[in-house]
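Notes from hallway chat w/ T.B., transcribed later so I don't forget. T.B. wanted the structure written out for a chain they're using in a teaching module, and asked if we could keep both sequence and structure tokens in one place. Agreed to drop them here.
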Amino acid sequence: MDASFSDRYSRQVLFGPIGQQGQTKLQRTRVAIVGLGALGTVIAMQLARAGVGFLRLIDRDVIEPSNLQRQYLYDEREAKEGLPKAIAARDKLLAANSQIEIEPVVTDLTWRNAEALLQDTDLILDGSDNFQVRYLINDVAVKHQIAWVYGGAVSSYGTAALLRPHVTPCLVCLFGEEPEHAHDTCDTVGVLAPAVSIVASAQVAEALKYLTGNFDALSGAIFHVDVWKNEFRSLHLGPPKEDCRCCGKNEFTALMRKSDALTVSLCGRHTIQVRPATARNLDLSDIGKRVSQLG
């Protein structure tokens, strides 16, 4: 290690399970972060400062004032200008660590681009806010034998787990097929920043263990926290299910759906993103007149 590298990461290198060998491994790894909101900003900040050599930041959204309560990479100027999160995150992270490579990608993760954006990485971290994206990540991870770290946080609670294809259950093993009904979001039940930070830090801790080759230290469990109820629990994952549609039978439904349809609430924006299954010519003035009777 050169002097600047050694000094920057000296406190991390002093931690025995990582050491110089582990730090060098981190420098050579490629990580994708899907979603640069509450979870994603904490994840990106910690991994960049830890010295992960390449980060791909994937997010479709722009910064707005309601993000600033919990999305630590952004500031008021960026919210006023409505900058893309991936671009603003890259600039902030490079200001903190110019020794790493960061690739911002301002887009939705869909069946069209998921494999291209994720399959060349060593680990994927979930900072998304909907299960449609998570099931896409899971399909790519299983198909290309890439570990990924699931995470979610709303209200005062959240969960995290590192999933390894054919070692731990995949998302389909754990939760079944992609849910069709709505689930709690920060738009409906709010979210506390401490819950986000704890879940994201748990994700990063598992990521650092995995990327430095400390597999024996992996929790092998789903971590759950509720900061308001003072609950900290973990549930052992166990083995994958042999009859699992995804990791057992290699049926990748999310990738094979080949549909661009999406209806999702954009957190904090009082906005629903509706993406039709097929291209359509829309008259927004006409739609506005028709829905004006509803509110």
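Follow-up for T.B.: The chain has a mean pLDDT of 92. Might be a good example for the class.
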